[in-house]
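Hi V.,

Quick status before I head out on leave. The structure for the redesign project is tokenized and pasted below; the design run finished overnight.
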């Protein structure tokens, strides 16, 4: 578990990372500080596609398939920030923001998620490989993406997308902001990649 004195106290959230304050009286104790991620909104110029795209819920190992904010202390050891969490389990949050990024780009005819009933031309299959803070690397976001033709099941293209951000410190809010910036960069790259390859 992360030592509070090492990684700092939790304070007021920044503009990018939204903290939802819950009443301690209502819960009978201190509620964890809860942080959100941003969906990318600004994109470089590029083409458009008439394809229908479905963004699947990403796969991730169990250490990332939860609401906790991970710290990789070394190659073999991970822990989490205390009293802090994402607004949802990380794979679902990544799916929601990626979907919104594709919608914000206005590059595709239609965007949906699995379960929406959208008849897809292509499916975006994602694996969350890293979404963590490292004392040596800073904030690291690494997503492996495959574009799958839903008509024949063939992979049209696949690529690893990764971004890092050193941030302004190792307190949880600084780390969340750095992760948010790195994730936003990855979202833009994934959208551009999908437009080019479809």
């Amino acid at each position: 578990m992360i030592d509070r004195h090492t990684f700092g106290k939790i304070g007021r959230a920044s503009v990018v990372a939204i903290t939802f304050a819950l009443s301690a009286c209502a819960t009978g104790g201190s509620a964890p500080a809860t942080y959100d991620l941003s969906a990318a909104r600004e994109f470089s110029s590029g083409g458009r596609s008439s394809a229908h795209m479905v963004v699947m819920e990403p796969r991730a190992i169990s250490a990332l398939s939860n609401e906790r904010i991970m710290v990789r202390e070394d190659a073999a050891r991970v822990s989490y920030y205390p009293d802090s969490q994402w607004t949802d389990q990380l794979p679902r949050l990544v799916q929601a923001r990626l979907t919104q990024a594709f919608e914000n780009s206005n590059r595709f005819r239609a965007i949906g998620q699995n379960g929406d009933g959208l008849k897809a031309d292509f499916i975006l299959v994602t694996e969350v490989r890293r979404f963590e803070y490292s004392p040596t690397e800073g904030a690291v976001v690494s997503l492996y993406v495959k574009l799958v033709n839903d008509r024949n099941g063939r992979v049209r293209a696949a690529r690893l997308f990764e971004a890092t951000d050193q941030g302004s410190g190792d307190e949880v809010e600084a780390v969340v902001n750095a992760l948010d910036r790195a994730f936003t960069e990855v979202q833009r790259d994934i959208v551009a990649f999908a437009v080019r390859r479809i």
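Above is the designed sequence. Strands lie at 33-35, 52-55, 59-60, 70-74, 77-80, 84-86, 110-113, 122-134, 138-149, 155-165.

G. will cover questions while I'm gone.

Best,
W.
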